[in-house]
Amino acid sequence: MTKQRQQSIKKRKPAGKNKTKSQKIKKAASKRAGKHKAGEISKRSTSTKSSSSLSLAQQQCQRKGRTQKGKSPSKFNLYMKKALPQIKHEHPEIANKDAFKKAAEQWAASPDNPKNKHH
């Protein structure tokens, strides 16, 4: 063996110490989860919904004692939600990209568009 090869082997970390970031995160999460005793109820887990049925964002909000409010959809989003199925029904072969373009063109001329309302 060459000297360089021997030095590189010495510099390596011992086996078992090389963990990926996700492995480290999982280990830290399992440590946090194990802090409470079996019979003890956590302050954070007082919800009636099971945490497995909630999304990650909902679980985080729940842990912090907040409710997830979120934004209400814009007029454009509401229009697109209504117009896209109509376009798909009229043109079943149309690609999503083209359906969105067509709906956006219709939105530009739509009376629902606030930019089209003249004062």
Give a written overview of the molecule.
- The model has no long low-confidence stretch (mean pLDDT 75).
- It is built from 5 helices and no strands.
- The protein has 119 residues and is an all-alpha fold.
- It is elongated.
- It is 50% helix and 0% strand.
- The longest helix is centred in the last third of the chain and has 16 residues, at 75-90.
Keywords:
119 residues; YABBY_C; HMG_box_dom_sf; elongated; mainly alpha
In short, what is this structure?
By secondary structure, the protein is mostly helical. It has helices at 3-11, 21-33, 56-63, 75-90, 96-109. It is 50% helix and 0% strand.
Q: What is the mean predicted local confidence, pLDDT? A: 75
Helix/strand-derived class?
A: mainly alpha
Number of strands: 0
Helix content: 40-55%
Radius of gyration, in angstroms, nearest whole number: 27 Å
Low-confidence stretches: none
| Shape estimate | elongated
SSE order, as H and E? HHHHH
**Percent range for β-strand residues:** under 5%
Largest sheet: none
Question: What gap, in angstroms, lies between the N and C termini?
Answer: 85 Å
| Total of DSSP H or I helical runs spanning 4+ residues | 5
Topology:
Layout: H1 3-11, H2 21-33, H3 56-63, H4 75-90, H5 96-109
Helix pairs in contact: 4-5
